[in-house]
Amino acid sequence: MTTKTWHERAAALNADGRAFIDGWRVDARSGLCFDSLSPVDGRMLAEVARCDVLDVDLAVTAARRAFEDRRWAGMAPAARKRVLIRFADLMLAHRDELALLETMDMGKPIRYSLSVDVQLAQNCIRWYGEATDKIYDQVAPTPEDSLALITREPVGVVAAIIPWNYPMLMAAWKIAPALAAGNSVVLKPSEKAPLSSLRLAELALEAGVPPGVFNVLPGYGDEAGKALALHMDVDCIGFTGSTRVGKQIVQMAGQSNLKRAWTELGGKSANIVCADCPDLDAAVESAIGSIYFNQGESCNAPSRLFVEESIREAFLDKAMKLIPRHAPGDPLDEETVMGAIVDQAQMKTVLGYIEDGKAAGARLLAGGGSARQDSGGLYIEPTLFDGVDGSMRIAREEIFGPVLSVLSFTDLDDAVNQANSTPYGLAAAVWTRDISKAIRTSRALRAGTVHVNQYDNDDITVPFGGYKQSGNGRDKSLHAFDKYTELKTTWIQV
User: What is the pTM of this model?
Assistant: First the structure.
């Protein structure tokens, strides 16, 4: 599709910001709304329902009623499978619409909304749909005079709170296993990018997910999100977002009904490139592409780059040649690889970290400022700091923007110690042709995912989540069912 066509479609976009409760689009009970402004060019996209505790009560009540009457949980697994596959098919049929909503609401390039966000989200729904009738229960090895069954049952009403950086994909990671297991779901998308989640709810209903089983509440975290975390009739809460808010979610879960709380939180991922890296060009391409992908707004972005001193200059020379490819462009141009920052607050935060890095003495080699100021949107240049010390804020804190910090090392054990010396443990990488060194290093790195001689290769079949303050529990893979099911033992005396 041409850039002109995408702009024409954007001009005609008529997004619905109302909540989705019990199968219906509804206004917030308070009548309050907030404006959804596009970071692409500042245009108004929709008035979005500002849901609060009253709307949460309505949605949770609808979800509980749907769960208790077993309109979804009582379906044969093969029937739920067919519905979820139809849901994925509808996402593909509405691929362009969903991608446009994602780009205009969040700012990412349309090429990635199409090829990554919509594609991976529908694949997630489809994969868990296919898994629905392939999860077997167990019979325990008991004595002859007894029979012990170990069965999985849906936990009940699941609340899911997701971030703004991958709205559609994060929604899919939460709702797909939860729905496949037979639960009812109340989803709260970020107020910064709620539009694709709301559209997904309509497509789910069209696919055959019964009313009340999948509800979507837009709103602010300290209103709708807090009310969900404290609600006494929510059985489980899945949260992806900042470590600061994740701690609050866990505390509120304990303060209420001790609902199980699963969190996927921040990261400050380390990418370690050794002098015996098997392909330096590939390492540079990966390091630059991974940090600037999605404008650096990724929890697993490899924002700390450790390069062995003997290859540091060669690495930086190659990196500087690649950075211009990632200059921000029009997100509705399919050639653009880096788009807009999600909103003014995030842009201010990222620029503040850049100024802090300069003040701390790091060497600014590229970027460092805003871009495309005449667009009406929010853009930051791809930024690279060299000479970064591990004590600097840009090396310790999650920036969530297109900022790369380069640290050098001469001793691999020291690099690993530095890599582990943060509260986070989401992802890491090591580049070396020595397989023994790779295995030792991957074992030593305290992270939920460790990449070897690549970064960010991924698949729905493997779990995703972190160590330490990067959270607990895992999204993706069959392991996600552990979050949304209860294990029941039935002991039968023969």
Answer: 0.97
